[in-house]
Every structure is written in C-alpha cells, then in structure tokens.
Amino acid sequence: MITTNLTSMSTCVPETNSKTTAGSTCQVPSLGLPGQMLNAVQERARVVLHEPMAKSTFRLRLECAQLARPIVPGQFFMVRIPGESDPLLGRPFALFDVWTNTAGEVAGLEFGYVVIGKMTGRLSHLVAGDEVEIWGPLGNGFSASPGGRLIFVAGGIGQTPFLALANEALGQSSYPATSPRAVVTPSQVTLCYGARSAEFLAGVDDFNRVPGLQVELATDDGSTGHHGYVTQLLDRHLKTPGEPVTVYACGPEPMLKAVQKLALAANVTCWLSLETPMACGFGACFSCVAKIREDDGTPEGSWDYRRTCVEGPIFEARQLIF
Ligand SMILES: Cc1cc2nc3c(=O)[nH]c(=O)nc-3n(C[C@H](O)[C@H](O)[C@H](O)COP(=O)(O)OP(=O)(O)OC[C@H]3O[C@@H](n4cnc5c(N)ncnc54)[C@H](O)[C@@H]3O)c2cc1C
Ligand code: FES
Prior knowledge:
By secondary structure, the protein is α/β, with parallel strands linked by helices. The protein is built from seven helices and 18 strands. The chain is 17% helix and 34% strand. Strands 1, 2, 3, 4, 5, 6, 7 and 8 form an eight-stranded antiparallel β-sheet that branches. Strands 12-11-10-9-13-14-17 form a seven-stranded mixed β-sheet, sandwiched between helices. Strands 16-15-18 form a three-stranded antiparallel β-sheet, with no helix packed on it. α6 runs parallel beside α7. It starts with a helix and ends with a strand. It binds flavin-adenine dinucleotide and FE2/S2 (inorganic) cluster (FES).
C-alpha cells in the first residue's frame, strides 16, 4: 500500500501512529521516475482556521510554511489524517492561496473542499489546533500569464486554483514565494464560475476582492448569474474579437470536455486541470493515468498514458483524450 511505501522509503516520514509534532517536515522520497516533484516535502500542519465557504463547502487554513513557499497556482498536495487508517490513502487538494503572518512571511496555505466522501467528511470535523499530514507541492501547476486575455473557467469546486492564479496575473502576489516567476501583464482577466445553484458558489467574495478581476457567474437553476452552463459564458468571450485568449479550466469532466471543444474550435491555447482520483500523488502507483496525444513526431493519432499527479494535473486541451 502507498502509505507503507512512503514510510519505508524515507526515514523521516511520520508513521501512521507517530506523535510527530506540527511543523516537522521531511523530504518526499524520489523514485527516480520522470516528472517527479523533487522539492516536495511532508509536513505535519496545524489547522489555524476552518470556516464554511458555501453549502457543504469549507475553507481550511494550515500552518505549513515549508510546503507553501515553493508552491505555484494549479499545484496540489495530498492530505491525510494522522494516526488514522480509514481512509488509508491521502486525497489531493489544490492550492486556494498561501497566507502570510503578521511579519509578512509566508506561513502556510488555504484550500477549499466540498464534502463528498470519507476524507472530506473527516476533514469537516477538524477544529483549530488539530493537525493533518500533507505532502507537496505536487504536479505541474498552471503556467504564468503569457499576456493577452485570460479566461478562467471553473465548475463546482474547480474554482480553487484560480484565486492564486488571478492574484499572480494581476500583480497582487508572486509564486513561488521563494523565487517569483515571470508574468506578462494581461489586458483582461475573467473568471467564469458555474455551479448547480447560488448556495454552492464558494469564495466569490475572495474573487471579487482581486483588483481588476472580472467575475461572471452561472448557475444551472438560474438562482444567480447566467441561467445555464458556464461554458456558454466562455463561448461568448471566444466570439468577442480582441487580444489573443488563453483559457484555463478546472472542474468536472463533462465541463472540461465542453471547454476543450470550444477552445479547439476557436484555435486558442487552453489548459485543462484534471481532478482524477489519486492514490500516492507522487508518481509511484500509476493509478491516475490520462490518455495524452504524443507531440513528438510519432504517427498521427498515437497517444500514451501520462500520470496526472506528476505530468499533470494540467494538460493542454489539444493533447488530452477523454
Ligand atoms: C489535482 C486535484 C486537485 C483537487 N482539488 C480539490 C479541491 O481543491 N477541493 C476539493 O474539494 N476537491 C479537490 N479534488 C478532489 C478531491 O481530491 C476529492 O473530492 C476527494 O478525493 C474526495 O475524497 P473523499 O474521501 O471525501 O471521497 P471518497 O470517499 O474517496 O469518494 C466518494 C465518491 O466520490 C467519488 N470521487 C472521489 N474523488 C473523485 C474525483 N476526483 N472526481 C470524481 N469523483 C470522485 C468516488 O468515486 C466516490 O463515489 C482534487 C482532485 C485532484 C486530482
Ligand atoms: S497517484 Fe500514484 S502515480 Fe499518480
């Protein structure tokens, strides 16, 4: 099992029932496979804030400076409850944003989650002062703004990667905190965010606070914003002439498929972030593969599996085969 692999490959990874204190860290082991995140660490992180964001949706703020410093928008981390074997495997969650302490230093990160099963049910009972085990940063992350018009398309809890990406594109924050990456100032940044109904829209106030970010909402039942699919908002933007567009999308697979179709028809660059279920999160188990079109001169139509956790979770729309 993955937990056993983790503990046996590294002498400093806490055992399931260990009493490691919050703030202790160690390096996630390298298996020598391509694409592995060599700067990933495992940390015991203390919960400092846990509050509702929307119906069945919560925000968890963790104290975990070492993991938060190198992370970039679109990357994720795995979370486990220390000392628990049910659920045995960690679960992946995307960065919502990093937070800084009163001295202005990066002190940890926040993520948002919706309660759907075992782990998220357990998370919902955590209170300030409790601890979780996390390891990361994992995955490739979104590339920084190339300029032009940026359109973020989010469905359900898929809005989580876009707060940090918007803050970065609009000059409010830099990632990674340790050595900020180059950003080309965009002419326009729009978040198109859709959910089943208004009560499931999470973090809208956070997005509205980002100076310069246009927030457009859609709900399936018409309870707020556009009555219909979020992809209809995207379609409207793609049909509006202007500077080159780059689309970034995260959400359920049917939404990603629709975004892919629109972006390919409009011939714009489009990045899709997958929410594939994962077991290890660091490239060892191959439980998370996606079909990716080869881009290396091999015959047309040829593809291979890529691990979403290390070679993703973000892939170019023209490469992804659903
Ligand atoms: C890179 C990445 C980033 C993610 N970021 C976030 C985030 O920021 N916030 C968030 O709430 N969730 C996020 N997820 C999804 C999150 O990992 C799952 O919601 C979580 O694993 C559910 O765990 P659970 O134990 O509560 O549910 P489980 O008990 O494992 O599963 C409950 C039910 O949900 C189904 N299920 C589990 N995971 C998924 C999935 N990914 N897609 C579709 N169905 C699934 C199962 O098949 C089962 O039917 C992310 C996933 C990935 C891969
Ligand atoms: S989750 Fe194990 S290889 Fe991706």
